[in-house]
Amino acid sequence: RMVPSPLAEHAILLASTFLFPPVAFVVVIVILLATLGKSLGLRERYVATLIYIFEWGAGQIKTTAKLKRKESLMPLDVPIIDSDEEEEEEEEEVDEDENERRTARSDGYESSSGLSRRRRNSANSVSSRASSVCSLRRRHGSGNNIIMRDTQLILDDEDDLPIETMHVNSRGWAVIGDSVDFIKNGIEAIIEDEVTSRFEAEQLMTWNMLTRTSTRFFQFVNWKLTVLYMAGFVFRYAFLLPMRITLFVIGLVFMLVSTAVVGIFPDGALKKTLNHKAMLTCHRILSRSISAVVYFHDEQYKASNCGIAVANHTSPMDVMVLSTDNVYALIGQSHGGLLGLMQRALSRASSHIWFERSEAKDRLAVSNKLKDHVSDPEKLPILIFPEGTCINNTSVMMFKKGSFEIGSTIYPIAMKYDSRFGDPFWNSSEQSWGEYILRMMTSWAIICHVWYLPPMTKLENEDAVDFANRVKKVIAARGGLVDLEWDGMLKRCKVPPKMVAKQQEKYANRLSRYTSTCEHLTRTPGSAPTLNDEAEDDEGIAASPTISGYNSLEELPEDVAITDEEDNVPPVPRSRSRPVSRVVEAPN
Amino acid sequence: MGASTSSLPAGELDRISIESGLSKQSVLTLYKRFLQLSTHRERDSGQYFLTKEDFLNIEELRLNPLGVRIIDAFFADAEVGEREKVYFYDFVKVLSHFRPINKNKPHLWNTREAKLRFAFTMYDLNKSETITKDEFKNILQMMIGANVSDEQVNSIADRTMREADKDNDGYITFQEFCHAMEKTDIEQKMSFHFLA
Predict the structure, then answer these.
(1) How do residues A261-274 score in pLDDT, each as one tens digit?
(2) What ipTM was estimated for this complex?
(3) Fewer CB within 10 Å: C terminus or N terminus of chain B?
(4) A107-to-A100, A156, A217 alpha-carbon distances in Å
């Protein structure tokens, strides 16, 4: 919970920052801009500069890593290898080199390609693939012809890997040796292939100069980076922080004052417009206090009145971020303290839904309140996070189905934070509210993409749970998020149709094995179910559901593999191109 | 996908780690990889498994001339037999053959012999415990392709068999295989350092 600071502290802070002219100047400008709803594009430029600096930093990391690797032969990806194995690796590295000389293979090892690899040692074996040149030669005794054969193994579509050439050495038993190389290659591919290692390597390679994210990189930091880091630190704490605190305070004060003013007016169109302007302005000021750079997409689908806006919840900043573009009615439990103060202030200017803790347990009451609000065209769209808020997790359990049961239009919103410049996630068990705010204000910036999605309504034959699931899917797809379960009761994911068709084939086959089915099925009697009659299979199966005791796909025995594709979607994207043709068989 | 099915239970992790000699971190990495590759799951036990198609989905493996054979050897080595499924335990077992040999901590699964076994299995298609000249020629042709004439392949095969076949019975047994590979640094060739 936020500790409400006494007014005196505020005054002192304000005074001290205003004594500092540049900060005051910036503050004034920012407020001006916020009020007018314009932006100088400074934040975008700031972000671009930061990116440039980080990339330079990443380059530094790479070169340092390279140097360090040469010195200590330490693998790039630290977590994989236990520290007590390092010695052994060094020896084996040396052995590899000697072996290389011994077998008189041409070409040196390419170490530069190793940089983009996750592990040095896999780089070695890759380059050994690249460099092992074997030629097909006849023994001296039986002829002088040297037959060279090139097997081009183009192992990668992308440009940076060189095309690798392998020839096969036939001198006696060396063939076996070469085949072992192929084995190694193959097993390596099984353990890890290009796509995944590159993706993960990209994620590792940039450091955003915040120690909180940099635990892996300490070993690669050289003096240049340290200087940069120090400069960044000073900038963040001595310049950004006071400015942001001031802005935050001003924003809060503005909110209190403006809502009080707007509250004076009687309900009507004027009040609504004033509220609109006031809310937008104060949220914009507040968002500048954490240097939030928000990109809105598809603004035509913005929520208008009589609807419920539903968004995925990722940080406490969500409400503020969304409110910089559109005005919403909020819903939640009423608190005491500073938060309660703000809640009362907001309620003066427009109607929000706050309810007591005891009421929260009464789902019907909550649901009714929602219905009332939504059916009033004068009221603003409600903003709901069905997953939960960081402030109070319990109350949202009620909303999960509740908001989807009401039957109003749902405006889905997908939000995605880019955590390169500051991680807005709050782990409430590890950090207190104060710590969290401090972290926010000393990050570089908070970047967020918001996508408005076309409105959705509940279909006739859908129940609330399915509808919720549908909305969730749409949001997850747009935001590039992993589809997680929202409701504990939603356990089963639907099996995709093509798998169903495949299973139907197998099902039909089983059917013919287990039963003398001909008279039960509605098709031509006397013919066994064929693979082409899938559509008819459906009918046949549906007509006599208990023929083989399998009432549904779910009951098929284990050896009929059902691919729950959704179950298998991992967060890491992977290339899943189905093999078009098998490995070329050796012509005989 | 519930969290419980996508992560290895701790007891399982320990067991596999001890049995295979791999560090827990390595086992977890392999598990991640296993899940990535797997497209099938058993209804009852919820266990994931790999089929040959899953292996063939790996592009690099497809491009490898011995790719299919390697897959066959993988399945044979895992001793899956009729069921044609590779569970995670089998997966780890086979891959742990490729762990570097630690002289201080010898382990049954990554001995030199175990490594050679894998290679031998790849040649010995019919599991007869011997490599015939034809089986050898098969592999050779897979590696070389159509570029070399049949006679040449034949003579290479001949020569190789002669070198290795000590008792001249026309077959190479596993012992003869091991003996012939004495000079080759199998430990280096068939080890991955990152499998610790």
Answers:
(1) 888 888 888 888 88
(2) 0.86
(3) N
(4) 10, 20, 32
